[in-house]
Amino acid sequence: MTMNQHRTGLRRSIDAVLVAAVLALVVAPAAPAMATTATAQNTTAQSSTARGTLLSVTPLAVLDRAEVVAALGTLGIDPGTVRYGVTAHRLTYATVDPQGRPTTATGLLVLPVGGPRRLDLVSDTHGTVAHRDSAPSGAPGDNRLTPYLHAAAGRAVAAPDYLGLGGGPGPHPYMDTRSAVTASVDMIKAARTAADRLGRPVSRDVYATGFSQGGQVAMALGRELSRGRDGLTLRALAPMAGPYDLAGSELPGITDGRVAPATAVFYLSYYLTAQNRLRPLYRNPAEVFRGAYAQTVPALFDGEHLEQDIAAGLPGTPEELLTPEWLANIRHPHGPLAAAVAATDGSCDWRPAVPVRLYAGAADTDVPIANARACAADLARHGVRARVVDQGPAADHSGTAIRSAPEVVRWFDELARS
Fold first, then answer.
1. Which of the listed residues 297, 313, 344 is the one where a domain comes to its end?
2. Is residue 14 a part of any domain in this protein?
3. Which residues on adjacent β-strands are paired with residue 358?
């Protein structure tokens, strides 16, 4: 989810409703001296291309320190850690799809203008978006702000678009944890190559953070990096407002009212449509969606519809969206849906050997704070004490990220000095 809300005049607390004020962020034209690599923007990588191979670099923006501060100010993000200007680049790189077949993906690399000779790297994984240009390397908007914040503090930032978003081919496999992790690992590899070519070499230390969907991805990415297979060293985990616990927190929150109805409808529509592409949940959308929604809902999640247009095409409550059978299935998942939920969950069910902080908000009606508490409980069962940083009763979903992101930067600064 992005941090921007209530800008359409409707209560649409949905990830990434990008409005004109944010889409119109003024950025300086890319410096012509930043030449791109030879581009290979075909829809799939050659089968012989290794995962994480950098295929192209496209300059997107150059912001001086004052422009970074101004961009952060559009959402009221504390600019106290901004020390440098930044440069932003779209990377295209080789990765694999959910079936393990070669494909390509894109992501945003942000580098500080100045700072240490060798940069540590932040992996910043974004929240739910449905339009491909709402991803970090797409149109300027909310999903560039936390990468700018971290880079302006003196670190390189790799912000993957995930599969099927940005310039990647095909539909986005929403909430498919495994492919989100492979795309994120491969983005880090490509970012290290690109940074080196741009004269800003990057260390093997990775600080992982992310918001909403990206919070869940960050925890799963941390587990993958902790296995040491990619030559990278995980230093810390600081996810924000992640849906770590669909079975025990998020889906119950949808059915008992802790998740706002309009948000619940968006999430359910997106999740069921995307998961059905990966593993058959149903044969006919009419089994799941009521009336005309059986024809209209699947077509909305093609990567080409803006989030606000999708919201306008959905009903106001889950009861209006789902058939009675599938409403009961959401309340008590069984069969293929239970298997899909189990494949999504479990991102906190491991033992990190690095510090972990879980940022959340008591007033979050998109991803209830119960998700963070469940994650902390999973970690505790492995002997890891993770602090849940509750941003308080005034912090809704967006507010949690706005308050938390600068705190994460300061915490990473403390850890880097230790």
1. 344
2. no
3. 388
